[in-house]
Amino acid sequence: MSSVNGDPPHVFDLLGQALTAGRRGMEAEVADEPHHLRGSHLRLLSMTPAEGLRPTELAARVGMTKQSLGEFVATMQQAGFLHVDPDPADRRARIVRPTAKGLRLQARILEILAETENRWRDEVGARDWAVFHRVLSHLAAGKAPAGGSR
Length: 150
Fold this sequence. Notes:
MarR/SlyA-like, HTH_MarR-typ
């Protein structure tokens, strides 16, 4: 595995490959579902709280546009995993929340994620995993890792 010019792969390539491996593993674990859900659908469901969220808030949480979210929600709604109801605080607004079926799949997704993390931690060792997790957490928060050199 190397870049176009023969250099080692860059970090974004490596992260992408790791995420693809994780996504494929998760998709394989839920392949018995009658609706063939992609990793992006599973991610949406895993990030939708039981109490629900307005589409704008959910889109921001998931990192997609409200329009794209609408397409995903429609697919998940037709499959019976999500439902959209009027917001009791503002009848003009909507709330997206998991159905009972969605909550069951959500629990399964979270189990698969935990199993994947445990397997990866076992593969690289607890110490390296802790460093990896700390670095990713800092980067996700927009901060440089503590103690890192620049």
